[in-house]
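Chain X:
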Amino acid sequence: MGVIWRGGRFPLEEFNAKAEGCLNGLIGIELIEAGDDWIRGRMPVDERTRQPFGILHGGASVVLAETLASQGAFATLDPETHASVGMEINANHVRPVADGWVYGHARAEAIGRTTQVWTIRITNEAGKLVCLSRCTIAIVPQRKG
């Protein structure tokens, strides 16, 4: 697919700084690396992201997946004219995690004019699959004002 990022590189530091007051920042999501057509982030498994039974909440995995997909999609666009928003997401939760970190690896599968499709693999610290997700992103005109 080649390099998909507007300007040639994914702006990790900029996206992490903007997350501080948002949901992804509040639950500890960090973007940690990017390649030509993928990004990788991590999320702690702690009191913010566990369900009452002591394991990673499936909804937290979905937040990580959609964060990676929507921010990945946004980094392909002209931010003056377009934005990216989640349109549909599914997630298969395949392994519980009680503590530590989970890592999400998001790759663009299709980049169109009005939609993008991303696959997100979430793994535990041992590299074992925790959640497999696919997210469709809508590309919309940027709201001014």
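Chain Y:
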Amino acid sequence: MKIYTGRGDEGMTDLRDMSRVSKTSPRIEAYGTVDEVNSAIGVLRPSGYDDVDADLKRIQNHLHIVQADLATPDSEDEDTPHIESRHVDELEAMMDGYDEELDPLDHFILPGGSDVGAKLHQARAVCRRAERRTVDLAKDDPINAEVVAYLNRLSDGLFTLARVVNKRDGVPEEAPEY
């Protein structure tokens, strides 16, 4: 099977139901930005921490489900993988576990730190963009509401992971100066 088809040469692409849409449609923007989040996470694995890597691998698999969910115009399609509330619950449980390692947060922090910590902050920022793109899509097209909840929680999870990795790496958090 060839990787290239030429079907996108005129600026159109296929959704999961084989309908054709512009590559600039809000649906493509949403799941394309989710792909950016997934790629950003792939850049920082391995992180040097087995527990973090296991969580990131699980998240990357969830992001493929998010993309399939968003690439399907009929959000009721039973053959499509869907993000479910249990995926959001898994992110919350992950954050709760890592929070035990962290000092309480009482101020904003500057994104950065160790190489992996800074890349986690970058992935978080891209995740927020994916969330915004998905909310924009939902204004005009029906989507699975759990996708927005998942992306919202994931950005918090990536923030938490950045803090944990930076703490483990001995990099102090910096507060912004106003």
